[in-house]
């Protein structure tokens, strides 16, 4: 692999109570790691990608997962209007009926982290929202893939491509 440089690895020691080491070793075995170093690297990466560890001006991509009581007066309507207010940051949504009272939505987002945090906060404080979590990862900060080219997106069968809410792709532009 010419031209591919390996990262320089730094060794350091970590002191932990015996019981914590035993629990950690059980965790890394269950997760399929072959050594502690791999597991620690992944844990550090995960912590560095937590929304609180990133700068608000960074471009990120991720999800907002929420569970809510759809019987709460006006809550479903409010959530839909809120998503329309942030339509430039929302790539797609998936709605799941968990049971008679609860719905789960997964909102796929991409944008400036401070705006996504704001959207998440506006969701989680609503009465009837039982759970809301923002999970993000870095992006290259470049343009959205659909902004970089200008050709039509059609389904291979020649039928119109459907958008996230069942409308044709042309209706969403």
Question: How would you describe what is shown here?
Answer:
By secondary structure, this protein is of the alpha+beta class. Helix content is 29%, strand content 23%. The protein has a four-stranded antiparallel beta sheet with strand order 2-3-1-4, covered by helices on one side. A hairpin with a 4-residue loop joins strand 2 and strand 3. It is extended and about 55 Å long.
User: What ranges have pLDDT less than 50 throughout 5 or more consecutive residues?
Assistant: 144-151, 157-173
Estimate what percentage of residues fall within beta strands.
15-25%
Shape estimate: extended
* Helix count from the secondary structure assignment: 4
| Number of strand segments | 4
Q: Major β-sheet, in short? A: 4 strands, antiparallel
**Helix percentage range:** 25-40%
Q: What order do the SSEs take from the amino end to the carboxyl end, as H and E? A: HHEHEEHE
Q: Mean pLDDT, as a whole number? A: 81
How far apart the termini lie comes to 43 Å
Radius of gyration, taken over Cα atoms and rounded to an integer in Å? 21 Å
Strand order of the largest sheet: 2-3-1-4
| Helix/strand/pairing category | alpha+beta
